[in-house]
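Notebook, bench 3.
Goal today: get a predicted structure for Putative Cytochrome oxidase assembly protein from Thiomonas delicata so we can plan the truncation constructs. The sequence was checked against the plasmid map this morning, with no discrepancies at the termini. Length recorded as 388 residues. Pasting the sequence as submitted so the record is complete.
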Amino acid sequence: MTNLSTAVPTVWSFSLHWLQAGMWVAGLVLILWAGFRMRWPKLVALLVFLTMDLVMFGAFVRLTDSGLGCPDWPGCYAHFTPAQAHHQISEAVAEQGGTQGNVSPFKAWVEMIHRYIATIIGALIVAMAVRAAWARKHGRNIALGLPFLLLGWVILQGLFGAWTVTLLLKPLIVTLHLMGGIILLMLAAWFWMRNRSDLPKVPTSTLVQALTWAALLATGWQIFLGGWVSTNYAALACTGFPTCNGSFHPAANWAQGFTFWRNLGENPDGSAISLQALVAIQWGHRLFAVVTSVIVLAAMWGLSRYQPLRRLAGWLTALLVVQIALGASVVLFAHPLELAVAHNGVAALMMLLLTIAVYRVSGAQSRQASLDDASLAFVNIERASAKS
């Protein structure tokens, strides 16, 4: 478990030198310009791709203990890159007695790359919202709800990213930051589907719709439980599979394990969290995995009854099998980084495909704006204004 007592003195607020801030702003302007010029379908698809990358890289940050690699925000020791903060990082490494602590050049770069990707996504969402509003103002039939919901959510997600650092990796905050990334991916996927005409909605029974929604919600809760395992460093609390420490009824302290508002490694009263609490966290994740698997398989059975949805059902079933195998392997092979990151990535991919499934079975075919209603609207209107 990470020893936060080795963390160096930090600045728990916005800390960025004016020159470094200018570099950040210049990067944002460049991304915004690209977002304004890019065709709308490509922009939405890029948003989904980058958000998926962000979720997976966030897992890498968490699993490599890099969350405090740069202990201020949004820069790294008031600099734009860890290379520019080399002196401060070296001092921190010396003070904590080596690179095994919270700060190291590697961890600083991991944390900052995560922030760079998040910045790109935020800027692209701003560009999308501005383009949608511009097109709506000039007579296009554009719904503004989802673009501005994405904008609001990415701002909230940025705040959770800052709180993750400033609250010293408090487990609930880090887990909610993970779930915020998953929800951002779901919103982006929903927006992406609304801008596709090749994957129309499929009329299905109420039972299939309910099962698909249940699969989405169960998988989301299972991801939360997995995040709770990771942020509490409880992955190795249970040895063996499918049993936990050789038993199907391991000694577990459920009250301690699922007391959410507390510091990392501590109970609310400041005492050290017990091994039995970590066992409860790990065993709870495993038990609910059984429930989630049954619900997902039932939903996939329902989806497979409709020809346009069979391939999607097949992919989700395959991913479920892979996810179970990865979960078992993480335990059996003592939590290797590659398998743990893959376990997180497959979970995010399942949520992406389940969101697509929910969209495709949800209600009758809705009237969608044409693909080009906002794609080049900003550029076209700008050019028209210049000609006049």
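Residues 1-197+368-388 form one domain. The first helix runs from residue 18 to 37.
Flagging this for group meeting.
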